[in-house]
Amino acid sequence: MKNQEVQTADYNQKNIKWLTYLMFMMFAMTTDAVGVIIPEVMKEFNLSMTAAGLLHYGPMTAIALAGIFLGFLADKIGRKKTIIIGLALFAVNSYLFLLGNTFGFFLVLLIISGAAIGVFKTGALALIGDMSKSTNDHTSTMNVVEGFFGVGAIIGPFLVSYFLTRNVDWKWLYVVAATLCVVLIIIAFFAKYPDTKKSTEEPINIKRTLLMVKDKYALGFSLAAFLYVAVEAAIYVWMPTLIAGYDGSFTFIALYALPIFFILRAGGRFLGAWMLERFDWTVVMAISSFVILLCYGFSFLNESATVVLLPLSGLFMSVIYPTINSKGISCFPKSSHGSVAGIILFFTAAGAAIGPLSMGVVSDLFGSDAKYGFMLATFFAVILFVGFLLNMIFKPTLTRISKLNESEYSNLNSL
């Protein structure tokens, strides 16, 4: 016990937290800038929307597969090695963007970057549990981490847009990200990490991860992540198409609808970190998902309602995903955090790929009208709200999280 307390007290938590924050910001700069990059690639290589969309679906698929098949690495070889391996692969791969100039080359690099993100992200998610003092602290920290992700989602598209106005190729975004990644590798290498010991003799491998998918808590939170991301992705993938040509009273909002959404989502996550330290998370999730549903539902009233309510939904979306992630991971002992983080990440990336794709298919069935795709997204929002309403009423995770809070975090609370 004393040895564990010394190890816990010994690591530099400040460096570890900033490492985690900056990792999420860095990879969001690239993943969330794809929407700005796709039109440039379409013009450069004369591609269809379906073909250019591979720049989004490809890396999302790679993140999903890396999450489910490599998430166990954080539990098997440790958080530090997993993070450094993922960051190193991402950095080298990002610098390679300067060496080629074909669509196939870029697509392969983006798929590799997705796999790298899947590796270091699961390591980082597991690390959050190691440095948290309680399950509530875990949820609060996760919201701050995702807040930095939201900041990166603003910086990335801005940098690409700025580069293009200066006649600088969009590929330099990846050079910026790679250089930041090198700094993160140096921080990760010298940082002192908390020690997480195996609590089971069960082999830590892919088979163990796949068996965990059957656990009702892992599956439940993973499906919630899938539904939420499908709802969220509707905004940043299809909202610009939906409101294109708007000339009503809120033209300014329409012009900056996507940045407004990202800013509200990022700011809301920092606010969410404060809220979740003070209020019951099940109530916060039920209320937030209900307001999202209202934003989507009333957006069909007229074009002005669409322009105002869809970006506004970002404020209420902000708290949902980090809390799903945190509570899902908190339903398992720390020695399994990497694996369960990988499972949730798989469903997250699947939602990011399948959600917009299914919306596009539905829209095309009705004359390529994006409104019908948003009807499907609204249906996803209904299911999400019903799930969180039942969660608030029955609190199925209360006993399990309470027991793990006592067994996994009690030693940290005593320091």
UniProtKB/TrEMBL annotation:
Keyword Zinc-finger listed: no
Ranges of residues in domain Major facilitator superfamily (MFS) profile: 16-399
Membrane topology: Multi-pass membrane protein
Family annotation (InterPro entries): MFS (IPR011701), MFS_dom (IPR020846), MFS_trans_sf (IPR036259), MFS_Transporter (IPR051788), Sugar_transporter_CS (IPR005829)
Gene Ontology terms, MF aspect: transmembrane transporter activity
Keywords, ordered alphabetically: Membrane, Transmembrane, Transmembrane helix, Transport
Superkingdom, natural source: Bacteria
Localization (cell): Endomembrane system
Gene Ontology CC entries for this record: endomembrane system; membrane
Family annotation (SUPFAM superfamilies): MFS general substrate transporter (SSF103473)
Main location (coarse class): membrane
Residue ranges crossing the lipid bilayer per the database entry: 21-42, 54-74, 81-99, 105-128, 140-160, 172-191, 217-238, 250-267, 279-299, 305-324, 336-354, 374-394
Family per record: Belongs to the major facilitator superfamily.
Protein name: Fucose permease
Phylogenetic lineage: Bacteria, Pseudomonadati, Bacteroidota, Flavobacteriia, Flavobacteriales
